[in-house]
Amino acid sequence: MKKISCILIVAITIFIASCNKDTVIPNKVVSVPTPASVKFSTDVYPIFATYACTDCHSIAGGSAGGLNYDGTPSATRLSLLNDGLDPIPAVTPSNSANSLLYNYFSGGASHHGLVMTATEITNVKGWIDQGALDN
Amino acid sequence: MKTKKYFLILTIILGVNFYGNSQDKNAVKETPVTNSFNSGVFMENQTYLTNYKHAWEFVVNHRFGKISDGSKMAWGIYSPSNIRVGVNYSITKDIQIGIGTTKNDKLQDGSVKWNFLHQTQSGKMPISLTYYGSLVYDARDTKSFAYSNFKESHRFSYFHELIIARKFHDKFSLQVAPIYTHYNVVESASDTMADPVRKNDNFGISALGRLSLSSTLSLMVEYDQNFTKLVKETSKFKNPKPVISIGFEKATTSEHSFQLFLSSGEAIAYQKNMVYNQNNFWNGNFVIGFNITRVF
Questions:
Q1: Domain around A113
Q2: Where are the domains of chain B?
């Protein structure tokens, strides 16, 4: 019984000690200018590996959403253009507002709580709005 | 003030326990009711049940994507899913501890469950009472917390409930639980300053029932409601929606249970379901989920 009491006291102490009340203080919004030409292969494609997107969106990961990011940049681009959740496609060329990829990562919708940097978000938006080219 | 609140809760719990013990000494031994529920897990919540002394329980919770994802995603089966694997250990027949890990947000949880009052077959004690508490640690990479005043303590959140359960009939049991949740950090409505969008402390209630359809099959219904409203609703932040779940449980023995259900909760972590659920069950925003428990 002593052991149980000790465990409970430790548990209650941890509960109380680690408890506080805070509010997020956001970072100052950094405005990143969109580059004149965003390249998919160097500015967008590497993001998928950085955030471990390929854990789910790959052939080995079960091709979640019909999306595969583990092929070549060209194959990944085609996957983005052809799939996504109904009724919003993953990428609609020249229309980032109607592209799930941009909506998820710009904070419009939650996707496993991922937070991309301002530069990465700007690059995704720029690439889509510039026609989602295979470049 | 906060410490006082904890002591008050503790005093009530201990007081009820001592009252129960003193009753036991003077009375003829009462037999507690059995088989009120098949398992300690119930769709999106816990039941009052704990396992027998020194029992190990293995738990798998799985939630597919939303049914509303459509036919292209096989109604959620191809969508990203959420899964939790956990283990519980019963120190005594009434006290159980557990740990688990959940895929979404990499949540690591630890829990304590204490069944301190038992409904008796004679009816002298009409209800069972259980305290259940869980602490969740958000183990995502620090860069997922992209704001200026991030502290390690912001990774913690808490869930406490006092489960009041009663077996009304051989085939029907009901359970109600007042719930308190605490998040160490809440979001800001402003993009530049701390402007809390919700309260750190939330209060709610869970009500659930089980109806036996046969010796091994049961119908389950559950409703979890958060009463604490947002400080301010914005286009990005909306009041939490109730978690509504309905399903079936197949349990061939008391040591194994399989639950298959539809639920508007997809977080698995109880506090996240209570505070952050945005799925409206009546608009078709629910997922197919299943829980498996196995006691060794």
A1: 36-129
A2: 31-295
Shortest Cα distance, chain B CAs vs residue A79, angstroms: 14
Q: Which residues contact B4 (CB under 8 A, 6 or more apart)?
A: none
Query: Residue A114 domain-assigned?
Result: yes
User: Chain B 237-296, CB below 8 Å of chain A: which residues?
Assistant: none
**Is A31 an interface residue toward B (CB < 8 Å)?**
no
Instruction: State the ipTM, two decimals.
Output: 0.72
CATH architecture entry for B31-295: Beta Barrel (2.40)
Contact A15 B146 (CB under 8 A): no
Nearest to B200 by CA among B178, B236, B230: B230
pLDDT classification of B13: cutoffs 50, 70, 90:
very low
At A59-84, the pLDDT tens digits run 877 777 778 888 888 888 888 888 76
Q: Is B97 in Cβ contact with A26 (below 8 Å)?
A: no
Can you read off the two tokens belonging to residue B39?
Answer: 């398992």
Whether residues A66 and B72 touch (CB distance < 8 A) is answered with: yes
Coil/strand/helix, residue B195: coil
Residues B51-69 pLDDT 10s: 999 999 999 999 998 888 7
Angle CA B225–B114–B93, to nearest 5: 135
Kindly determine whether residue B79 and residue A20, on different chains, have CB atoms separated by under 8 Å.
Answer: no
